[in-house]
Amino acid sequence: MNSDRFSFLNYPEPREGPQVPYKNEAQSIPVFRGTTLAIGATLIHNIGFIQSQFWRNAGFGVICEVPHLHEYAGRYDPTVIPVDNAPRDVPTPAVGKRKGANFYYTSADYHALYSSGELTPTAVVETLLPLVRRDAKPPGKHSIAFLESKVEIVRAAAEASTERYKQGRPLGPLDGIPVAIKDEVHITGYKRTLGTKLDFKNGSDATSWCVQQWQDAGAIVIGKTTMHELGLDTNNNNPNFGTPRNPHNNKYYCGGSSGGSGYAIGAGLVPIALGADGGGSIRIPSSFCGIWGLKPTHGRVSGTPSLSLAPTVGVLGPMASSIDDLALAYRVMAAPAPASQDPISSQFPRPLPLPSDRERAKKIGIVRDWIDRAEAPVRDVFDSALDYYREHGYEVIDITIPYLPEGQRAHVLTIMAEIASGVDVRQIRHLTAPNKVLVSLGMWQITAQELLAAQRLRNLLMTHLAHLFKTHPGLMIFSPSTPIPGWHIGGGEADLSRGLSDGKTSVRNMEYVWLANFTGCPSISCPAGYARESGVPVGVMAMSNWGTEEDLIDFARDGEGILDLHVPSGDESVWEDVIAKAKEEQSA
């Protein structure tokens, strides 16, 4: 969507925020692991005095000290709805094939082979199932990234797709394409655990609207992917179901909380997956796994009640191994839901690709003090990307955004409160140690004053962003996806089996992505290079005006030449050439 085409419901009043100097200090948060973590979590969960001391030391009280908050009402839901009732048909976007043997497959590679009869969806599924099934004996090579795969459902979908191609009547470019869906999302017949050992189906066995759109277009869900427990961190460490390692370097996390979906793409298992910014979910894997990720305008594609634990910070978004597939997946899933199913989603217009030759502003805004906090390997990649955009006609301007450090704390506080509101007190003891701490704090330590102050600060940030977008039409707020060049698995196998509480790295990792999540602005994360020492991909992120997902897609296309993204390689590579394996097995 392009915001010039629409009027809006709930658009913030454009209002320049206060001029305050950027000031951010490294937080002194100890790392807990192993026995220390288990004991500390039990004490904090059960002893109110220790809990309150821990909360005060975390420094969230600074939110209430922001001097300008009395000038702003609270903004409890960041949903901004573009209004356009004109009827429209959404054209099928073209998807290019992979560029060579060292590149990822796209949906176009599958579709062409299916159409020619050289390969069938059934053959692809029969290749994938042994690789991803957790219930197989022995479990599949990549099953650590999958919560479950319903074999009968998967095979039935593949057989139906195979028959459609045989009859020369495929449903479209997504027909027969394998996709993966994050555990957080509702799918009929599947568990919904949110990465815990608990049941969070909430009595529903329906399929979320966005997933149904993919399935109606013929896509085959090969399984649900694992996630960080409750989505409450960004490394995807999960002792409950196991932690998939980064396909580019197995000493690093994939990033989270949608790390299972990130792994599924990064390892070559699927070209498209679904992640979610719901509850505490902040999707980082597009940076760490070298994939493309789009976070649409809030509420855009949900379509199922109780989709996440945190309705005011939750939104779904596609992830893909190419920008073409990202655009295709988004346009299919973003059809508005019926009002009876989701009254908010139903108000959004259908996404409409904009003419490629249209005149559009090419303007990038950067907050220099903010991006200066990125570590050197990340900053090198970011600066190269910025130079590339300059060389291709983009104007780079300096902008300011007030209270960024305080806003990040307001975002975290809001997440913790909303997660706690969706968890029964009796369920806390079933959580892993790090989340016993976070949910206990969210449940018993956040005051009404702090929560209300956080929502006032949200409004301050949203009105200031509206001012920036009005002052600079077409503005892309540009930053790294994360300031760190990957999250190293510091404690090795012990951290993976017992969990980790590293608040300092968690805060650092979210330093850029939180703003779009908290304010409901759409954003896109694009692979832009590799960290020098680890070889882990580094991403850059653009955030734009509400309702401008299509502008973000065009912006990402403009930067496609920054990086020729290659598949993971080397002796320890986990990348699977699914198409080659399927061809071999089909001809055997």
Automatic annotation (TrEMBL):
InterPro entries (alphabetical): Amidase (IPR000120), Amidase_CS (IPR020556), Amidase_dom (IPR023631), AS_sf (IPR036928)
Domain Amidase, chain residue ranges per copy: 146-552
GO molecular function (one): catalytic activity
Superkingdom of this protein's organism: Eukaryota
Matches recorded under Pfam families: Amidase (PF01425)
UniProt feature coiled coil, ranges: none
Chain spans, region Disordered: 1-20
Family according to the record: Belongs to the amidase family.
Protein name per its UniProtKB record: Amidase domain-containing protein
Lineage: Eukaryota, Fungi, Dikarya, Ascomycota, Pezizomycotina
